[in-house]
Fold EmrB/QacA subfamily drug resistance transporter.
Amino acid sequence: MPDVRLSSPRGKWILLTTVLGSSMALLDSTVVNVALPRIGRDLDADLAALQWTVNAYMVTLAGLILLGGALGDRYGRRKVFVIGVLWFAAASLLCGLAPNAGVLIAARALQGVGGALLTPGSLALIQATFHPDDRGRAVGLWSGFGGIGAAVGPFVGGWLVDGPGWRWVFLLNVPLALLCAPVAVRHVPESVGGEHEGRFDVLGAALGAVALALVTYALIEAGDGSPVVVVAGAAGLAAAVAFVLVEKRRPHPMMPPDIFASRQFTAVNLVTLCVYAAFGGFFFLAALQLQVVVGWSALAAGTALLPTTALMLLLSARSGELGDRIGPRIPLTVGPLLCAAGMLLMLRVGPGASYAAEVLPALLVLGLGMVTLVAPLTATVLASVDTARAGLASGINNAAARAAGLVAVAALPLLAGMGPEAYRLPDAFDDAFRRAMALCAAVLVAGAAIAWATVRRPAPDCRHPECHTHGSVAVPPLEAETDRAEEHGKGASWPPGTEPG
């Protein structure tokens, strides 16, 4: 039974280790967008290469994050976490030394593999080591410190890009890993997820990642109109179909199809796809718009985006409490509509835009919309499945959000009419950005309509999330499993290879 107390020296070391590990992956997902214009200029890369700089990481992370959690449960959460940290650091070093865009993209894909190992492991270590009386507070501190890291990430990224250079955005991970890994080995006890039977769903994970990669490639390169693009798109769709068929037939699937028998769970994941597709596209293009069109430095652009994260960090707990009182239907409808209004306000952001008059109002409305919807969305995901499957449900929802974001980054420039050199041409980029914001707003309105039509109030005794403080703008929070599975359902167990983490 986990018995480490948060107030003990060991408890503080464990918290430091998990915060450092998760912050590495979180920072890279927030600061790279700010560095994209400088990366493009230094490596003579076109817009497609910048899209791949973001999406190569997301493809492997989204495709393998569920498998990464299962590996930790089977072979040891500390072991897999440390491997993930060191893997991520090695890939970050390769990113920082990349001589061209091709090497950078390959290194980013390797980073995603490391992220898939360490991201679920950081929260699973808290669940597995802290005393039940301290676990909720430990998760809250982990989430809160992660939110602070997300808030300062764009600022630090902008400062590095304008100062030492964009390569330090990646190289900064190396000293963090050299601190995190030894502390984990010395102070964090090893833990596993109990008895396991059957094999890992490696085939399912591979098919999911291949489907995402091929569809992303087809969308990014669609402007060429070559037969290779058509074949890649068709192969990606075929891999997606094969993934569904494999998951139906395997005894221990990575993503059990029967979890979607819950209409509420399916509906909320559809809302997640709409919402986080819009968020992914917005934060990819907004950092470029502020630098390419408005003419701000990387530091100014990164700092300008802070209000959205700050609002989520400060108000997400209250939003969760409001959702508990009035139910999720209204927050999941109003939240996307507020976000859509914020993105439409971004249409006013053009050459010579004023931060106070044009940029800040749009970001405040967007941030309030995100605050309104994120905590109720997570709570509704957990409430729509059995308590024993809450960790799995949270992981699927997190992976769905990442997949939606990477597809949006691939598709939005195509749909908005951005050419390969668009980010070098302020007028052309400004016109395409306006079309893209309108598209993002339309997707958010669709998400609001789905929520209003399908989401209903959960049962009063449903499971509530422990991650009350949430500052990430990229994905919904992962959820730590607790002994509430025993409290609410004696004898409940997780399918082998799908334990929470």
